[in-house]
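Hi Y.,

Following your request, here is the sequence exactly as I used it, all 152 residues.
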Amino acid sequence: MKLINCILAAFLLASLTSCGRQQSTEIHVPGLKARKGVVEVEPIDSSRVVAGQTLYVPAYSSVFISDQAHSFNLAVTLSIRNSDRTHPIVVTSANYYDQDGQLVRDYLTKPLRIAPMASAEFFVKESDTRGGASASFLVEWVAERSVSAPLG
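Below is the corresponding structure, written out as C-alpha coordinates. Let me know if you'd prefer a different format.
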Protein backbone atom coordinates (compact mmCIF):
# COMPACT_ATOMS: atom_id res chain seq x y z
CA MET A 1 0.00 0.00 0.00
CA LYS A 2 2.86 2.38 0.84
CA LEU A 3 4.37 1.73 -2.60
CA ILE A 4 1.09 2.62 -4.34
CA ASN A 5 0.78 5.81 -2.27
CA CYS A 6 4.36 6.78 -3.14
CA ILE A 7 3.72 6.18 -6.84
CA LEU A 8 0.50 8.21 -6.73
CA ALA A 9 2.23 11.05 -4.85
CA ALA A 10 5.09 11.09 -7.41
CA PHE A 11 2.58 11.15 -10.29
CA LEU A 12 0.62 13.99 -8.67
CA LEU A 13 3.79 15.99 -8.02
CA ALA A 14 4.95 15.52 -11.63
CA SER A 15 1.52 16.59 -12.91
CA LEU A 16 1.45 19.71 -10.76
CA THR A 17 4.97 20.82 -11.67
CA SER A 18 4.25 20.48 -15.38
CA CYS A 19 1.14 22.69 -15.23
CA GLY A 20 1.57 25.99 -16.99
CA ARG A 21 4.67 24.93 -18.88
CA GLN A 22 4.57 25.84 -22.49
CA GLN A 23 5.63 23.20 -24.98
CA SER A 24 8.53 24.53 -27.02
CA THR A 25 8.39 24.17 -30.76
CA GLU A 26 11.21 23.40 -33.13
CA ILE A 27 12.62 26.34 -35.01
CA HIS A 28 14.70 26.12 -38.14
CA VAL A 29 18.01 25.62 -36.38
CA PRO A 30 18.84 21.90 -36.09
CA GLY A 31 18.22 20.86 -32.50
CA LEU A 32 17.21 24.35 -31.27
CA LYS A 33 13.79 24.82 -29.70
CA ALA A 34 11.90 28.09 -29.59
CA ARG A 35 12.01 29.56 -26.12
CA LYS A 36 10.78 32.75 -24.57
CA GLY A 37 14.22 34.33 -25.07
CA VAL A 38 15.01 32.96 -28.55
CA VAL A 39 12.46 33.19 -31.36
CA GLU A 40 12.44 33.46 -35.12
CA VAL A 41 11.54 36.90 -36.46
CA GLU A 42 11.22 38.68 -39.76
CA PRO A 43 14.34 40.55 -40.93
CA ILE A 44 14.85 44.03 -39.48
CA ASP A 45 14.49 46.86 -41.99
CA SER A 46 18.07 48.03 -42.64
CA SER A 47 17.05 51.66 -42.03
CA ARG A 48 16.33 50.73 -38.38
CA VAL A 49 19.68 48.98 -37.75
CA VAL A 50 21.86 50.96 -35.34
CA ALA A 51 24.42 48.31 -34.34
CA GLY A 52 25.76 45.09 -35.76
CA GLN A 53 28.81 42.97 -36.27
CA THR A 54 30.23 39.84 -37.85
CA LEU A 55 31.80 37.45 -35.33
CA TYR A 56 34.44 34.89 -36.33
CA VAL A 57 34.55 31.95 -33.93
CA PRO A 58 37.02 29.08 -34.35
CA ALA A 59 35.58 25.62 -33.76
CA TYR A 60 37.58 22.50 -33.05
CA SER A 61 35.62 19.49 -34.27
CA SER A 62 38.59 17.19 -33.69
CA VAL A 63 41.85 17.27 -31.80
CA PHE A 64 45.05 15.32 -32.18
CA ILE A 65 46.05 13.03 -29.33
CA SER A 66 49.14 10.96 -28.52
CA ASP A 67 52.61 11.12 -30.02
CA GLN A 68 51.24 9.58 -33.23
CA ALA A 69 48.78 12.50 -33.68
CA HIS A 70 45.67 10.31 -33.76
CA SER A 71 42.56 12.34 -34.47
CA PHE A 72 39.79 12.38 -31.85
CA ASN A 73 36.39 13.72 -33.00
CA LEU A 74 34.50 16.19 -30.82
CA ALA A 75 30.99 17.61 -30.79
CA VAL A 76 30.90 21.40 -31.11
CA THR A 77 28.52 23.83 -29.40
CA LEU A 78 28.57 27.50 -30.31
CA SER A 79 26.67 29.63 -27.82
CA ILE A 80 25.79 33.18 -28.85
CA ARG A 81 25.06 35.17 -25.70
CA ASN A 82 23.33 38.52 -25.73
CA SER A 83 25.31 40.37 -23.06
CA ASP A 84 23.06 43.44 -23.13
CA ARG A 85 20.87 43.77 -20.04
CA THR A 86 17.98 45.65 -21.63
CA HIS A 87 17.83 45.23 -25.42
CA PRO A 88 17.52 42.24 -27.76
CA ILE A 89 19.80 41.44 -30.68
CA VAL A 90 18.87 39.68 -33.91
CA VAL A 91 21.19 37.04 -35.34
CA THR A 92 20.82 37.31 -39.11
CA SER A 93 23.16 34.48 -40.12
CA ALA A 94 25.07 31.64 -38.49
CA ASN A 95 27.29 29.74 -40.91
CA TYR A 96 29.63 26.82 -40.25
CA TYR A 97 32.74 26.53 -42.46
CA ASP A 98 35.22 23.70 -42.92
CA GLN A 99 38.99 24.04 -42.52
CA ASP A 100 39.30 24.98 -46.22
CA GLY A 101 36.82 27.87 -45.89
CA GLN A 102 33.94 26.09 -47.63
CA LEU A 103 30.42 26.52 -46.26
CA VAL A 104 29.27 23.33 -44.53
CA ARG A 105 25.96 24.50 -43.05
CA ASP A 106 23.84 27.63 -42.94
CA TYR A 107 22.02 27.27 -39.63
CA LEU A 108 19.31 29.88 -40.13
CA THR A 109 16.36 30.13 -42.48
CA LYS A 110 14.99 33.14 -40.56
CA PRO A 111 16.70 35.59 -38.20
CA LEU A 112 16.70 34.78 -34.49
CA ARG A 113 15.80 37.38 -31.86
CA ILE A 114 17.81 36.81 -28.69
CA ALA A 115 16.37 38.53 -25.63
CA PRO A 116 18.53 40.49 -23.17
CA MET A 117 20.89 38.13 -21.29
CA ALA A 118 19.58 35.11 -23.27
CA SER A 119 21.59 32.79 -25.52
CA ALA A 120 21.16 30.57 -28.57
CA GLU A 121 23.18 27.44 -29.21
CA PHE A 122 24.31 25.97 -32.51
CA PHE A 123 25.38 22.32 -32.38
CA VAL A 124 27.59 20.16 -34.60
CA LYS A 125 27.40 16.43 -33.92
CA GLU A 126 30.54 14.48 -33.11
CA SER A 127 29.79 12.26 -36.11
CA ASP A 128 29.73 15.29 -38.46
CA THR A 129 33.36 15.40 -39.57
CA ARG A 130 32.81 17.71 -42.56
CA GLY A 131 34.41 20.67 -40.76
CA GLY A 132 37.78 19.00 -40.38
CA ALA A 133 40.10 19.71 -37.48
CA SER A 134 39.88 23.51 -37.57
CA ALA A 135 36.41 24.58 -38.64
CA SER A 136 34.85 27.97 -37.90
CA PHE A 137 31.62 29.89 -37.54
CA LEU A 138 30.71 33.29 -38.93
CA VAL A 139 27.79 34.86 -37.08
CA GLU A 140 26.19 38.16 -38.09
CA TRP A 141 23.95 40.11 -35.75
CA VAL A 142 22.15 43.45 -35.74
CA ALA A 143 20.20 45.58 -33.25
CA GLU A 144 17.80 48.49 -33.44
CA ARG A 145 19.54 50.23 -30.51
CA SER A 146 23.06 50.59 -29.26
CA VAL A 147 23.80 47.37 -27.34
CA SER A 148 26.64 45.53 -25.66
CA ALA A 149 28.28 43.19 -28.16
CA PRO A 150 27.24 39.54 -27.82
CA LEU A 151 29.76 36.90 -26.86
CA GLY A 152 30.37 33.82 -28.97
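The radius of gyration is 20 Å.

Thanks again,
Q.
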